[in-house]
Design goal:
The complex is a heterodimer. Chain A is mainly α. Chain A is about 60% helix and about 10% strand. Chain A contains 9 helices and 7 strands. By secondary structure, chain B is an alpha+beta fold. Classes of the chains: A mainly alpha, B alpha+beta.
Chain lengths: ~290, ~110
């Protein structure tokens, strides 16, 4: 197994890229890069560095042609729909694609759009569209472990909140947020704690597994970003539940939760991309940056 | 320009963009925003950064261009793109095909006048 097609010898690499280009040529532009990446991942999983163009052709024959419109990648009116499995690699590609100018791209899973944080970072002048040859491919391993500390710390904070404040919390906690910021429903304290801790801990454990596996940078980055989004949202919900027990409306709660969904994970993705850029610069310029 | 013409012109531009990028890089290595500016300076190509960067990435994946960070005399380092030998061969082939197709189409159009 190899981690990137670039590890193939030049002839096998050219054969693989040529097949991938042809395979996805008919795919809707919105999904072309994501499909290409998934197919490339299949190649890297099944080829080793000594593979020949004939090996590539044999593997490609087993894959068949990637077709658009035959699976779940469709449009519902003007809305994009994607029911292909939401992999970590796909999360990274949709949430961080600085070469794509569009701020809103099809969701990782389901109906509608999601924010392309990479495009937002380029528009804010935080990074160049081509800062990395391939997003997160050059990002060093320690950067992923450091990034993992963000969802891990948020998860620990949520767990610590319920552990240490348990006795001081009322038996029922706010569960639903109304349009005006008022509490619109409650749930038992134990259920609220279980939901908040699980929403933070499970994606974080999955991200830790992905980083430990070290299959490829995009998968690690996507998993850490998704875990950060989940853990930050869970931490926000925990704070809101604790604060809203007094029954007063909190109009900031809705916008605050949306910001928690995107800002921490966006910062994590930006940090990982900057680490990748720095690694490329060290490689090419031979200086410590 | 009517809708039919606009669609046709858009397809034509898409078709020649790869050739235009390879042609620019054949003269000398260029960095991303430089490529975008030079192509955008030719309004008939109607190019934006959102078109150029994905295209250059695809050319790099195909082994036709390579990218390297280089120090800049003004400002931070920049990522420069250079044609590979395979890129030069592809450019020569594309340029030949483009010239032949253009000549054939021009001949047909002029005959019809």
């Amino acid at each position: 197994m190899i981690t990137s097609l670039e590890q193939l010898n030049p002839r096998a690499r050219a054969a693989a890229h040529d097949w991938l280009d042809r395979a996805v040529a008919a795919v809707d532009a919105d999904y072309r890069d994501a499909v290409r990446e998934d197919l490339a991942a299949y190649f890297t999983d099944h080829l080793d560095a000594s593979a020949t163009p004939a090996d590539v052709a044999r593997l490609a024959a087993g894959v068949g042609e990637a077709q658009d419109g035959t699976g779940e990648r469709r449009r519902f009116g003007d809305w994009p729909v994607d029911f292909t499995p939401p992999t970590a690699r796909k999360v990274a590609h949709r949430w961080w694609n600085p070469r794509d100018e569009r701020l809103f791209v099809p969701r990782v899973f389901g109906l509608g759009w999601t924010l392309n944080v990479g495009a937002a970072a380029v528009k804010l002048g935080l990074i160049e569209p081509d800062a990395e040859d391939e997003p997160f491919t050059s990002t060093p391993e320690p950067a992923f472990r450091a990034a993992l500390a963000v969802p891990a710390a948020l998860t620990a904070a949520v767990a610590a909140h319920y552990l240490f404040r348990w006795r001081g919390l009322p038996g029922r906690l706010p569960a639903q947020l109304g349009a005006t910021g008022r509490v619109d429903g409650t749930m038992p304290r134990g259920a609220a704690a279980a939901v908040d801790v699980s929403v933070a801990a499970l994606p974080t454990a999955w991200a830790a597994y992905q980083v430990a596996r070290g299959t490829d940078g995009a998968s690690s980055a996507g998993a850490v970003a998704a875990a950060t989004a989940a853990a930050a949202t869970s931490a926000g919900l925990t704070l809101w539940r604790a604060a809203a027990t007094d029954g007063r409306p909190r109009p900031w709660a809705g916008p605050g939760l949306v910001a928690l969904l995107w800002v921490p994970s966006g910062v994590v993705l930006l940090g990982l991309a900057l680490a990748g850029r720095a690694a490329e610069q060290r490689r090419d310029l031979g200086v410590s940056r | 320009m009517n809708k039919e013409q606009e669609g046709w012109a858009s397809q034509l531009r898409k078709g020649v963009l790869e050739l235009a990028v390879l042609g620019l890089l054949a003269r000398e290595p260029r960095y991303g925003s430089q490529l975008v500016e030079e192509l955008a300076a030719r309004p008939e190509l109607a190019i934006t950064a959102g078109t150029v960067y994905p295209l250059v990435a695809r050319l790099a994946k195909a082994g036709l261009v390579t990218s390297t960070w280089q120090e800049s005399p003004v400002g931070p380092p920049r990522k420069y793109y250079t044609l590979t030998p395979a890129g030069r061969d592809t450019l020569a082939g594309m340029a030949g095909t483009f010239a032949a197709v253009a000549a054939a189409v021009r001949g047909i159009v002029e005959e019809g006048r």
